Amino acid sequence: MDSEAAEDDVVLSSNAQWQEGVFKRENDVQKFVFACAIFASLNSVLMGYDAGVMSGAILFIQQDLNISEVQQEVLVGILSIISLLGSLAGGKTSDAIGRKWTIALAAIVFQTGAAVMTLAPSFAVLMTGRLLAGIGIGFGVMIAPVYIAEISPTAARGFLTSFPEIFTNLGILLGYVSNYSFSGLPVHINWRVMLGVGILPSVFMGFALFVIPESPRWLVMQNRVEEARLVLSKTNENESEVEERLAEIQMAAVRANADKYEAKAVWHEILHPSPSVRQMLITGCGIQFFQQITGIDATVYYSPTIFKDAGIKGDTQLLAATVAVGFTKTLFILVAIFLIDKVGRRRLLFISTVGMTISLLVLSLSLFFMGDGKLGIVLAILSVCGNVAFFSIGLGPVCWVVSSEIFPLRLRAQASALGAVGSRVSSGAVTMSFLSVCHAITVGGTFFIFSVISALSVLFVHTCIPETKGKSLEQIEMLFQNGGECQGGEVELEDAERLVQKE
């Protein structure tokens, strides 16, 4: 009996040690993937900070350099337009040198531009720095969600791929706080300090290069299978899952002849798409288009203009109101990351677009009919906060998740770059015309147009966005190949699962 009891104790001890080892591995994997997603998202802090800080800095740049209203629009909007060059180049670059080093290149180019803007003695030099910063942002915008989607476990992909949007919101908030904090300095110094603070995140990017690995999917495309297996062993919780993911990636690479594809052939397929690829492009590019054309960047860049039209007086009061907007935007993006893999992409997009439409309509009506009264000011602030809250809970983060996970391996980088181009062009068109349109039809009229466009985005979500929650990237690819076209968004993903199982 004593012998049997001793054997039982050994078995229990062995089981306890095994469970402890499994738990430790799961914990280590989660920490590692979490750290990779954070470091890959640092470029988004730079983009967000630029958007937030420029909304206040432009007030003082106008006074210091005596620039016209048209020059203000160009200065603000050109970053979005020029970033499309970075996005286009980013797809090719990430296929050539890898996702990891494209992230590093984005940081270097942006920080060079930020330094030039900080020291700019004239509008021409300021624009030069702005152009460099825009190219860096274009690289960062397209590569971060692609990298995170390719390195993340399926169950956490939505959560982790939303990190760039989280960090963008954090950057916007920091930009608003910087505006408020340094607004009391002399006019010829304060805007330079505001822009210069944005250089600091580059220090952390140096550490990131020593932590984050290369994308396993890119490694497979380069026939570096053992390196891909090593990365997958660090980002998946058990060996069977590692081999399963590796087999899926290799199957996708074989189907696409990824090792033989050249950029020209990839672009030929994008420009002459099959029905399934066409639907992927409609879904991925369409959601990015609506993300920006609904006016979120106008709200972020020109929030002081909106609040001034509502009746708030004084630069300090205007900048204080924008801080409230920044806090709201950041708070709700944090809510979104905990819902995206539970509630699902499509449902969050519905909530987001409907809420934005209502908020934009209320903002328009309050600016039209409330004048400079206290009620009008309160409604304007609440409407702007409501708009950014609904954007942050859905259209903001989900856009990047969907557009980074629906394209097949052979097209992912280039197609994501194309979608980012659409996003940047839409953003530039909005920010470079906002002040002129406001003069023509008033601020209230401009936001009424945004509310109509937002209503159209609700229809787009209903028609063209399928649910991709809980599916691997390879299963999503098979979904579209199995007839996942625009049909009310109600696509049966189980069909894709069956097709994958057959193969």
TrEMBL record:
The principal localisation class reads membrane
PROSITE patterns documented for this protein: MFS, SUGAR_TRANSPORT_1, SUGAR_TRANSPORT_2
Tell me the compartments it is located in. Answer: Membrane
Any idea which UniProt keywords this protein has? Coiled coil, Membrane, Transmembrane, Transmembrane helix, Transport
Please give the Gene3D superfamilies that the UniProt record associates with this protein.
MFS general substrate transporter like domains
Q: How does it sit in the membrane?
A: Multi-pass membrane protein
Q: Write down the InterPro entries for this protein, in alphabetical order.
A: MFS_dom, MFS_sugar_transport-like, MFS_trans_sf, Myo-inositol_Transporter, Sugar/inositol_transpt, Sugar_transporter_CS
Q: Which residues form the Major facilitator superfamily (MFS) profile domain?
A: 36-469
Keyword Endoplasmic reticulum on entry:
no
Coiled-coil stretches, from where to where?
225-252
Q: Enumerate the transmembrane spans.
A: 32-61, 73-91, 103-124, 131-149, 155-177, 189-212, 318-340, 347-369, 375-403, 441-461
Q: Which family does it belong to?
A: Belongs to the major facilitator superfamily. Sugar transporter (TC 2.A.1.1) family.
The protein's name is: Major facilitator superfamily (MFS) profile domain-containing protein
Name its species: Hevea brasiliensis
